[in-house]
## 1
Amino acid sequence: MNVNFYVTCIADVVKSGVAKNTVLLLEKLGCNVIFLEKQGCCGQPALNSGYTKQAIPGMKNLVETFEVNDYPIVAPAGSCVYAIKNYPDYFTKAGELGWAERAKKVVARFCDLTDFIVNKLGVTDVGAYLPGKAVYHPSCSLTRKLGIVDEPIALLKGVKGLDLLSIHNQQTCCGFGGTFSVKMAEISGEMVKEKVEHIEEVEPQYLIGADVSCLLNIDGRLQREGSKIKVMHIAEVLMRGEK
């Protein structure tokens, strides 16, 4: 199966390992991965801050980029996928009706990585091996906005040796929320502090998630606390093999 890979800004600039492991994982599952070099930022920071007009050029670039084929488009970040899924509405409100129609065709092909693996490829056990105890953090964009709840859990349950632990208020936001963490820094800081306290209570070796931005936020707090918990994106976990 031919698949487009949308790298996202954070994976491209900050977490290249997530991008690399996503591509390797898709290839392991039999996909021919295509990277279209014209792709750029989805515009999420501007959109979330109310600067829709300023985000329009980047949105048009993304639509144009992925119009060149009709293959599925897979991204390792639910927040970016959700932002893109709303392109038709943004274009319509801006009076760009032609672009709204073009966007509908493109956004229908966008998938979060876990959604694609479980629901499009029909796979829950990728043959991964990672012994130890872990906590899974369900990001707000993935669970509340995209409705992807069971897919990451199903994939992690298929990882040999991994023991998933539950924590208090597991569904609570980590406090990142994109520009929220900048505009409401004090509140955001208290939210991630509380999240980390609940994680550390069960003494896991790993904190796993499917949204890079949330993982950066939680990892930052864990490091400030001097914690030894290793933070991993699910793509990195699923590429772990038995040595």
Note: The mean pLDDT is 92.
## 2
Amino acid sequence: MALPIIIDTDPGIDDAAAISLALCHPNFDVKMISTVNGNVDIEKTTMNALKLKAFFESDVPVHSGAERPLLNEINNASHVHGESGMDGYNFPNASLKELTSHHSVNAMYNILKNTNEPITLIALGPLTNIALLFNSYPESKSLVKEIILMGGSTGRGNITPLAEFNIYCDPEAAHVVFNSGIPLTMIGLDLARQALFTHEFITSFKKMNKTGSMLYNIFQHYREDDFEVGLKLYDVFTILYLMDSESYEVKEANVQIELQGNLTRGATVVNFKSDSPNCSVVTSTVNDKYEQVFLEMLKRCK
């Protein structure tokens, strides 16, 4: 039976890979895509989600969400992902007229309360929408099976020395989510930094199908300067982990978000020795199957 999921995302090159695999695989029943300000602004992340919907001729509804963090100043990663957030490929025309609504938090709640089984939330960007969901509808927590998120780090960051981008963009939202009491799996920088997708591997699916060609081109644009070294694809590991969780090392920990420190705001403080863990932290792979799983999932795409 397919796993019902909601994808909350800020596409984003690596978001596009995760969304592509999830939309095309029979193991996943994507109930909706919710967009959030993150890699680029909300208008662009929403348009990118609609471009992917058009590319796959999907009927999955797209709802736009938070245009800014709860309290934080707006940050973005357009210097990494390009001006549109998903440059490098000529996607089919998409229009904001195809957007289902501008109220993704309400849409998530409606799906949660009207689905017969608890839903898994896949968080690929800042956690603003999910925090707003829990604050606006506290009863929704009991309707969520678990949260699989890309964010955080047990050590060094990538936007500041100690903070990972998604958490840094909205630390207050991350604080709400990490302390929600819902089963939570954190797939942070630790995993993606040591699980490289080699250039040889990425080239191998360039001509596999339309999706392989699309991903190859946006990956190449994403890391044009050092593409031949390989890629660290952060967000896609949320989907790969759900497909093959036994291939990853996971440790229980208490994870808290630093909100006050002038130099450490947005850091994920991970305590593996805590007697009250609130999170499963995926730290590494135990084999090299992630490329194989990626390829097998990609074969099912158009």
Note: Residues 42-55 form the longest helix (14 residues).
## 3
Amino acid sequence: MKNKGIWLLQETTPEQLQRVKDLAPDYEVIDGFSDSTLNFPAADIEIVYGWSSAKSDFLLENKDSHLKWIQAKSAGVDTMNLSLLNEKNIILTNASGIHGVPIAESVFGMLLADTRGIKKAINQQTNKVWSQTESLVELKGKTMMIIGMGQVGKEVARLAQAFGLNVIGVNRSGNPVTEVSEIIKQDQIPKHIKRADFVVNILPLTSETTNYYDDSFFTSMKKGAGFINVGRGPSVDTDALIRQIKNGQIGFAGLDVFKEEPLAKDSPLWDLPEVLITPHISGVAEHFKKRLFAIFEENLTAYVAGEELPRNVIDYKHNY
């Protein structure tokens, strides 16, 4: 048995498992997804692929642990003890980028459900009602503001331009992004928000973005504009959103994430006709295992060579 280990808690194909062994011949590779029994000294686990709090949190409490790198299986890592990881100098990489395609497609599924009357038609079909509308909205020529221009934001922007939307991208730095012709810094949102017919939240969750979308934000938007949240649930003040939907300030809300999940059965959101709820499924990716392993494989190649990890390293100063 080798004296340092790579613990695989994410499902891998036989080919992927062999690839890890080939890339890291000096490591014991433990398939923890197929076998829940850890037949290897926990203190000698150096790398974890696909962190699972229920299975692997105990490593952080082990004073003899040699854990150096965690490859998370999600883009959001706010549920992990980031301050402790930082204190222990453990590298954390996330799965940013693998959800870009499915989330972007979900965003446009939500938009079209509203603008083309599909949501209303589904409800009518349930009740066997034939009622044609004379007024529907075309996306072409409208303006979308995408708040959070990471990998998911870029994919949403790419599709938005294909639909003929004008896109305002928002990031922290204001640095140019290839996928959009107009980029603004986050603190410039108040100057431009009234231009947006649709606002899409893809911000990571931090202390600064918790309840970021509140009454003040919603009332600053164009009256009747649409709001889509595929970022993090706690970024939205739910009570404020409900108020602004009821008073007509927000014309449509497509919501995939919520402060508390599952969404409580007594939540007023269920009964608002302006709201489309999906149960945190926008990130479900058909090719999840393939895309996640590609990140891990590239980073593992660099790690074994003693180089800096090239992809998705979490900056503990910003917690994303």
Note: The chain has two domains: 5-97+287-305, 99-277.
